[in-house]
Amino acid sequence: MIYCRTPLGTVVLLNPASAYVIAAILCVIVGTYIIAIWRKMSFTAATVIANIIIFIIYMAPGNEEIIKDVFYNLGFNNSAFETGEGWWGLFTHMYIHANFLHVFFNMFIFFIMGIHFEDRVGFKWMAIVYWGTGIIGAGIINGYITLPDVVIGIGASGAISGVLGAFAIMYPRDRVPMVIIFIILPRVPVALGALVFILFETFMSFAQISFPGLGNVSHTAHLAGAAVGVVFGFIMMKKGVEAPKPGAKLGRKLDSLDYSPLGELAYHPANKERYEALLKEDIPEVKEVLLEDLVSRLRCPDCSSILTLKGTTVRCEGCAWKADLRKGRAG
Ligand SMILES: [Zn+2]
Fold first, then answer.
1. Which three-class secondary structure state does DSSP give residue 324?
2. What does the alpha-carbon distance between residue 82 and residue 159 come to, in Å, rounded to a whole number?
3. How are beta strands 2-6 and 9-13 bridged, if at all?
4. pLDDT, position 53
5. Ligand 1 centroid to 263 CA: how many Å?
6. How far is the CA of 319 from the centre of ligand 1 (A)?
């Protein structure tokens, strides 16, 4: 046993190498989402990739002690309610899986359903639902209701159930592929899939109470995750959450610019018309083309050379004249 002091508290390790494995796992979680935002990847794809890489990291050494260290330190141990330690497990438990089938089925189901939901609500809300339902449902609520038994929860299924719950409330008629006991149904309404899932999980939860030996899958965590997902779904509907439209960012940028320096140069009637059309245009992609077209037709007020648009600045090819459209100033 090794006691390792970390900024988050003391960690007990069976194998000293586990410290590096745990550090690598945390780097993968953070790094994958940074790369996803940078490369405009979906939250769903990033989460699937992170889970697979993490699984390989702690399974590849083939060392039982390392695997136990990862489960005990990154899973959510509900004794945190008594000891007040290991709260980070509320977040990290979603990235740890027991075996190959566990990670494979979780990620497969999450991917085929998650990409559709993320299409509807966008990256930011997908992340809020996934992390929110995983932390609150599978972590806090399930951890609390399983007391006084000490349970270490691992796996993404609580968060995935949360996504299903929110999806079923917000877009019940959307059709997604669904897996019902090893059978893949290609186009099932989300509401029907969620209903079958919840009935099955409820049955299994009661079956586990009657027959405690019935597997170590936490069906109550699935139900808690789905229930919190339903609450998230109602809140998001009330807020009118929708995925940002593809041109939204470009539109905001173009709307924030001050085109008056171009207006002063557009004295020719045809250019004046083009300038008026640019100001009136609402579709971001069209507005961008109109802007480029107008700039290419205007001439420098100082030397009559052609003008070019670079970012938000209009420059003269012949002299130092330029106009910054963000400030609406020429000079
Ligand atoms: Zn010039």
1. strand
2. 24
3. antiparallel
4. 95
5. 17
6. 4
Q: What's the confidence (pLDDT) of residue 299? A: 93
Ligand 1 centre and the CA of 296: distance in Å?
A: 14
Q: Separation of 208 CA from ligand 1 center, angstroms?
A: 80
CA angle 220, 224, 226 (to 5 degrees): 115
Cα(32) to ligand 1 centroid in Å equals: 47
Helices 100-133, 43-59: crossing angle, 10 deg rounding: 130
Delimit the domains of the chain by residue range. 2-239, 248-330
| DSSP conformational letter for 306 | B
How far apart (Å, rounded) are the C-alpha atoms in residues 229 and 216?
23
CA of 260 to the centre of ligand 1 (A): 18
**Architecture (CATH level 2) of domain 2-239:** Up-down Bundle (1.20)
Residue ranges with CB less than 5 Å from ion ligand 1: 300, 302-303, 305, 316, 318-319, 321
Question: Which residues of the chain are modeled with pLDDT < 50?
Answer: none
pLDDT of residue 55: 94
Residue 330 CA, ligand 1 centroid: distance in Å: 12
308-322 per-position pLDDT tens digit: 998 889 999 999 999
Contacts (Cβ under 8 Å, ≥6 apart) of 75: 89, 92, 93, 96, 152, 153, 154
Distance 252 CA to ligand 1 centre (A): 30
Q: How far is the CA of 301 from the centre of ligand 1 (A)?
A: 7
Q: Is 9 helix (H, G, I), strand (E, B) or coil?
A: strand
Q: For residue 159, what are the contacts with CB-CB under 8 A and spacing of at least 6?
A: 94, 130, 131, 133, 134, 137, 138, 225
Per-residue pLDDT at 181: 67
Q: Which of 93, 73, 55, 65 is nearest to 6 (CA)?
A: 73
Q: What pLDDT digit, counting tens, does each position of 254-263 carry? A: 888 999 999 9
Using the mean position of ligand 1's atoms as its centre, give its distance from the Cα of residue 302 in Å: 5
Ligand 1 center from residue 298 Cα (angstroms): 11
Distance from residue 273's CA to the centre of ligand 1 (Å): 23
